[in-house]
Amino acid sequence: MESPISIRDTEIPLQMQNIIDASTASYIKSLHSLRATAQETARFQLDEVKAKLRETEDDFVKALAVKTRKEAKRMALMDVVASAKARVEDLSASIRDHRTKKQEYAAFISLALAASKGKLNESIERKDETQVISWYNRVLGFQVKGGRGVKFTFKNININNPDEEYFLLFHETDTYSWNLVVTTDEHEESAFNSASAPVLSMSSVRRDFLGKENEHQAEPTEGNKQFKKQNVHRRLKSSVLSPGSASSVCQSPRLKV
Amino acid sequence: MVLSMYASVTNIVPNLDEHSKISGYIVEKDKDAVEKFEYDTSKMTALDICNGIWKIISE
User: Fold this and answer.
1) A GO BP term, please (chain B) (predicted)?
2) B39 to chain A, minimum CA–CA distance in Å?
3) Measured between alpha carbons, how far is A229 from A184 in angstroms, rounded to an integer?
């Protein structure tokens, strides 16, 4: 009969081998299962991370676009501000120039006005009255004489004969006459020519004179007279338009006034 | 009195200091303004000067 120890020795390794085999198989099985799980998990996580990255990239691109737009806007604003500043400086300079010129002009006007007024007073005070009246007579061909009324005489009206005189009489009785005095023997022809040819200058002179009528109403005469402007106009018009009338007026005894 | 009549009718105050030229001032009382005029007798006839001054007066 075999010893029990020998049987145990043979049995024990067999059992151990079985155990080892079982363990190994179980381990290998577990290992396979674990690898599969790990791979699955890794794949899933990788997909998640990729999606995350894509999202992040999109956000980054958007943020970059926003930044770029803001930068562009900032640049544009800076340009506008710079332009506005330049404009303000230009306007300030312009205002300074205008203010300077205004002051210069004001000073100049003050000086000119003061000088003119000074000259006026000087001119009036210094010169003899006769000398001044002579100036009016010579330069303007204009003469004023007082008497029974006022007589205004004008020359330099007929370009063909500047020495011809035209006069206007204002009598103390408010009547008047517009008359022609000739210095040549051919007075009728001269009357005709002067009545028609220099009509414009005659009208101009009379208009000038009549426009000043109010000026001398205040002048002291033999009693204050109210000149009748309407009558003066009517009378003058008929005198201008009718050479015959002028010719007949030449025969008037009033020439002896 | 006569001198003031001349000045009043014409609104002109002559400048008698210059003999080679005819010059003076036209006074516009309502505007409180003074305008100077000057004519060179060597360049214009007496008739033209006379008409020029009257034209200024009437403006």
Assistant:
1) regulation of chromosome segregation
2) 11
3) 32
